[in-house]
Specification:
Layout: E1 2-6, E2 9-12, H1 13-24, H2 38-63, H3 74-77, H4 81-87, H5 89-94, H6 98-107, H7 115-124, H8 148-179, E3 180-182
Antiparallel strand pairs: 1-2, 1-3
């Protein structure tokens, strides 16, 4: 039985079985949902998404002639929990692999932000990159808004990183839509058509 095809190549169910078995034998096993339950099936759907995403990444990296040596550090791309939420759990998990990070760097190499975006962000968030200065007695007083010239580089880096994550996620979603065909029962966990999706509005 196959859980999906990626570019016409079958992904056997045994690959998802092996991923699940490794998780259930690992240190986080107690936090996992019981096998066979609605939540357990959702875990298998998520693992399927990860497996097919990894296959898309390998194929795209090969087509671009990329190697893991081209990769930035994981912390550079995903510095905190917010960044991981922005890019999505599957993409964040895939970016643990240096080859995926090399692809991220290649796909987003031309993503940038303009001066107007930086100035607008500063106007809306004047204290975001300000540093409180020590006052008498060692206490820190409230931070004063830093001049734009002082924080321009930090804001640009922050906005550029977020823009690159959005660009990569959009690109990855498009490539998966083009290349991946999921078998019944292995739909995306968030697909409202599958019976285990409990996210309701």
């Amino acid at each position: 039985m196959n859980v999906a095809t990626v570019g016409g190549v079958a992904v056997p169910v045994e690959e998802v079985d092996a991923r699940e078995a490794r998780l259930r034998a690992g240190p986080l096993a107690a936090a996992l949902p019981a096998a066979g339950t609605s939540e357990g099936r959702q875990l298998r759907r998520w693992l399927t998404q990860l497996v097919v995403t990894e296959r898309v990444i390998v194929a795209e990296a090969a087509a671009r002639g990329l190697s893991p040596q081209d990769a930035p550090a994981e912390l550079e791309l995903l510095p905190d929990a917010t960044a991981r939420l922005e890019i999505g759990s599957v993409a964040a998990a895939a970016l643990a692999d240096p080859l995926a990070r090399a692809l991220f760097a290649d796909v987003t190499a031309d993503v940038d932000v303009c001066d107007a975006e930086v100035a607008d962000y500063h106007a809306r968030n004047p204290l975001r990159f300000s540093v409180a200065s020590p006052s008498q007695g060692g206490w820190r007083g409230p931070a004063a808004a830093a001049p734009l010239a002082q924080v321009r580089s930090a804001i640009a880096g922050h906005l550029r990183a977020a823009a690159r994550r959005r660009a990569f996620r959009g690109w990855l979603d498009a490539r998966r839509a083009a290349l991946v065909r999921l078998a019944p029962g292995y739909e995306h966990p968030g697909d409202p058509r599958q019976p285990d999706n409990t996210h309701r509005h």
